[in-house]
Every structure is written in structure tokens, then in C-alpha cells.
# Entry
Amino acid sequence: MFESIRNLKPYERRFFILMIISSITNSFPILTFLVTQYQPPFRCQRNNSTLATTKGTSIGAASSLHNSTTGNNFTSVQVIVETCHISLHNFNESVSNSSGANLEEKLPCESFQYDLISNENSALTEFNLVCEDAWVNDLAISLFMWAITIGGVCGGILSDRFGRKAIFLASTYIQFFLTFTVGFATDKVSYLVLAFLNGGSNMINYGAAAVLGFETLPKYSHNAFYYGLILMYAIGNMIVPGIAYYLRDWRWFCRAMGILGLFYIPYLWLIDESPSWLFASKKTEELGKLIQKINKYNGEDNKVSTNRIMLLKQEDERKAVNVWKTWRTLFKHRNLIGRLLVVVYSWSMTSLIYYAIVLNSNSLIGNRFLNCFVSACTEVVALTLCYFISEKVEHRHIFIWSIAIGGIAIAITPFIAESKNKRKQRI
# Structure
């Protein structure tokens, strides 16, 4: 990797660094769910009496509460606290065991009390997205993912039409703005709408950055460039728990994530359009100015401009031929269609597992901020190993073995958890 970077020319090296840095904040929108949907221990409240939602029993203490609400005269009440309701088993010791002497009734919670520290909250606690409304949390993430899908399809078309740089910057600024607006949700409906909108541009700028880099940098550096993008993405995962630790208010957390977009305003002048896109779009005047700018930055004379244009022409012709040839070949051979379906399915399952792990860190035992940080550190290590192994081993083998190892790890996890629970019960 370092050798690839050293071989880059000054302009290319500067562009390389700027683009991978831009990827640090790409993970911020999805990780906001760890803050907005944080569910602390909570208590069910009814008639100004607080009962823990963890399962337990209490006999006699709630008899006055139930008698006052029902008009009955039971001498003792056994309270069995369930997750989202309270079960009351009523006993009248002065009456023999007959019909009506013992009654069972389930009472819904009228409100909830959450165990939060000072200035700590989440959208879940503010809008009471638990029990009957817990589905809102899952729906918000699903809408976010659907928006990513729609944005991913539209992003490629838009970047072909308006340019890589324009779409990269526009989607980046929109992403920060929409993350900022999530902090102004007033109810669960507006929260769902903003969650959907927030996902629309999340992967457009990531894809545009990758394409912009591949079309600007020499081919030998593409592997290192993409590794840099995903590495900075993982480092962004490490930064988020630190910010969330100090900003416990979910609204201010979302607003802070949006304000970070101000740091990307200089990118309007720091990066340039893809030379390949300018050539393909027949923007010869802009292409000429860009090449002169690159030559000046690299300390090269203008004779290099002719060579650059010739290389762009050859690359453009090669891509035009290969695109149509690839699609024609693909539809002529069922075997290739099958391979495409396997790759798409494998990538879908990989993404499903990845986001399930990332978004589940709040459910792990221990400090939720530390859990998120450790998860991100693990991702950095895995990405680094993958990059260096891919330099020596065929990519197909890496893909197959990594999927197999991941599947085995997921399969044995429930058995490990069950074994630990059995040991605790013995103790």
C-alpha cells in the first residue's frame, strides 16, 4: 500500500488523501440509530406506582392499588411484572375457594420511566418506542435501508449525467443536512420520515467517491485507494461512540453530526472533476484547464498533456467496448448469470450480517460506547488483514473462506451463549 502511494505523483497523492478522509463520516448516519434508538432499563408506571419491567413478583403490596381501581375488596394481590403489562393474581383469604375468589387480570402500562443519567435521552425514550410501539424502531432502520437502495440506483445515473464531483459533493452536503434535521423530529411519524430521507444520499457520495478515485488515480493504486476508503469508514465507526459519550442528548447528537458537514465546504475547491468524465462528456475546454492544473502541480511541462489525452481516449474506447461486450456475453451464458446471482446474494447476506452486528452493539453486555468502539477496532483489523492477504492470494479464495468462517462463527454463537447460561445456572 505504502509503495503504491509513494509512486503516485504529487497531485494524485494529494487527491488520494483528500478522498479517503472524506469517507470517515460516511458511517455517521447509520450509527445515529445507536443513539436515537438506545433502550435503557425502564419501568412500567400505572397510577403513580412504579413497577420494574423485569420479571418478578410482589404479594400484598399492590392490593390497595387494585382495590382502588376495580372496586373489589381483595386482601392480597400477587403482582407478576411482565415486559409490557402487569399481571395481577387477586386472592380473598376470607372467601373459600370458589368462583370469583381468585382472579387474574392484565393491566397495561400507562407510562414508562427510564433509567437515564442527567441530560441523557433518545428518540426511543422520548416517543416511548417500546412494547406496542417497538415496531417503529425496526421500521425506521428498514426505511433507511430502502432509501440507500433507491439512492444507490439513482446515484450512478446522476453521476453519469452531472459529473462525479458534483454528485459527490451534493450528496455529501445533503447527507449532513438530513442528519441534522433528524434532531428536530416531533413524533414517531416525523422520525420515520426523516429516517427514510436520511438514508437517500448515504451511499451515493461513497460510490461517487470510489468512481472519482478510480477514474483519477492510476490503476496500480486502485486496491490501496479502496482499502483507504473502507478503512476510514471503519475509523469513523470508532469516532462515533466518543462523540455519543459526551453528547447524551439524541437531538444534539444528530445536530452535531450535521454541523460536521461544514468541514467539507473546502472540498468545492480542493478536488477536481474526473478527467475521464470530462473527456467522455466532450468538455474539452474544462479538461484542458484541468490537465494544465495537474501538470503545474506536478511540476511537469505541457507536453504531458497530449499523452494524458491520448490515454483518456484509449481508456474511453476500451470501456465503451467492454460494457456492451460484457452485457452481451452475460446474457448469452447461463453460467455467468448464475455467478452474478451468487455474487449478489453473497453480498446481500454479507451486508445483512454486517449491519446486524453493528446495530446490535447496544444489546451486548457491558458499556455500550466501549462495545461500539471495540466492534469498530475489530473491523479495522479485519480490513487490514484482508487488504494484505488480497495482495498475495486470489480474491476468489479470500471471499469464499471469509464467508465460510463468518458463517461458522454465527452458527456456533447460540451454542456458546447457551453453554454459558447453563454454567451460570449450576453456580
Residues 48-74, 95-101 have pLDDT under 50 and may be disordered. The first helix runs from residue 2 to 6. Residues 275 and 290 are 8 Å apart (CA to CA).
